[in-house]
Amino acid sequence: MSEITPHRKIIHIDMDAFYASVEQMDNPSLRGKPVAVGGSENRGVVAAASYEAREFGVRSAISGFMAKKNCPNLIFVSPRFDRYKEISSKIHSIFREYTDMVEPLSLDEAYLDVTQNKKGNPSASLLAEEIRLRIFNEVGLTASAGISVNKFVAKIASDYNKPNGQKTVNPEDVIAFLEELPIRKFYGVGKVTTEKMYQLGIFTGVELKSKSLEFLEKHFGKSGNFYYNVVRGIHYSEVKSNRITKSVAAEHTFDVNLSSEIFMMEQLENIANTLDRRLKKHNISGKTVTLKIKYSDFTQQTRSKTLLYFISDKGLVLETVKELLYQERMKDSVRLLGISLSNLNTELKKAVVVQLKFDF
To answer: pLDDT tens digits, residue range 257-313?
Structure first.
């Protein structure tokens, strides 16, 4: 029996350079200038970059030193996550006026299933346009959108007309769209996999589609089945409106490296205060405490302990963190410390999705 891809109306909304755009909105003197959120010219990592900075090759996850080298006029701004969360909350409130089937991926992007929507509008494309306009008018930021029959294609499409644009891939156009797509633009195909596919003569979707399932599983293991299906437009993943929080964390990068466990413990108390606020806000507790350590040479280590009972009390978290800190000697000075709580008491709630055929 052959499988038929369910036709759903999926919108992927992606805010444009979200953190940097918020900073430019709140501080008019930054508008039109290259801005990096996070890091500094001497240390740290860039969390986000404005489009003006991206023109110089400044991207998230590169070092502040390299960012400044690429763009000498780059302006570094400290992140304000409380402000980003405040703006994100307003944006998600707009989403929920259209559908309850909203799956946040991060503060700045989400999937919306509008197969059935609160506006009774049969056009997913018009809904996306309306949502983007409302975000601009009510929040002051621009967003881009991708619209298609599944999350995979919608995610790829949202990147096509950035910034402040959208792209719809209609049901009858999905296969042709995927066949022409460069393999590096396939969501889930990273840099290493892209290079491997190039070596196998796979440069676009049509070449990926020409490979058998056996061939793909031989070279890519379990991921082979995923690649085999998505290039054929088969991707059944539903929009999950109740994503499970798997861990809650807080961390801090220091201006000066720490070499004393006493100083580290002082900083860990501050980090625990931040974690405590987040746990209380969402009424979350967990059993596994993890201490994250990043050394001056950028190598990273984690030390974890799982308790027999759920905890959320800051004192108990710190007690466990202290035990983990003194578990073994530090191999070098430390530039970052973090605490996370996982193995949480959150419960999975399954969302019911009605799948229909439709016109875009």
So the answer is: 898 999 999 999 999 999 999 898 888 899 999 999 998 887 889 999 999 999 999
- The token pair that represents 44 in the structure block: 């740290």
- Quick one: 170 exposed, middle or buried, by C-beta within 10 A (0-12, 13-18, 19+)? middle
pLDDT digits (tens, 9 = 90+) for 182-208: 999 998 888 889 999 999 999 999 999
Q: Which amino acid is at 262?
A: I
Would strands 35-37 and 75-77 be described as parallel, antiparallel, or unpaired? parallel
Catalytic residue among 52, 109, 130, 180: 109
Q: Give burial (CB, 10 Å; 0-12/13-18/19+) of 150.
A: buried
- Kind and range of the H or E run holding 339: strand 334-344
pLDDT band at 242 (very low <50, low <70, confident <90, very high): low
Residue 176 burial (CB count, 10 A): 12
CB 294 within 8 A of CB 342: no
Measure the CA–CA gap between 11 and 24, rounded to whole angstroms.
26
Token digits for 232?
Answer: 């054929």
Supply the angle between the helices 81-95 and 124-138 in degrees, to the nearest 10: 140
Q: Residue 76: name the closest of 90, 95, 58, 96 by CA.
A: 58
Residues whose CB falls within 8 Å of the CB of residue 33, separated by 6 or more in sequence, listed in order: 24, 50, 52, 73, 75
pTM: 0.70
Residues in the chain: 360
Those residues with Cβ within 8 angstroms of residue 178's Cβ, 6 or more apart along the chain or in another chain: 153, 205, 209, 230, 231, 232, 233
Indicate if 97 belongs to the active site: no
Of the candidates 59, 119, 62, 71, the one whose C-alpha atom is nearest the C-alpha of residue 95 is 119
Q: 314: which 2 tokens?
A: 């800051």
Residue 58 exposure: Cα atoms within 13 Å on the Cβ side: 35
Residues 6+ apart with CB under 8 A from 258: 264, 267, 333, 334, 335, 337
For the stretch 67-117, pLDDT in tens is 999 999 999 999 998 899 999 999 999 999 999 999 998 889 999 999 999
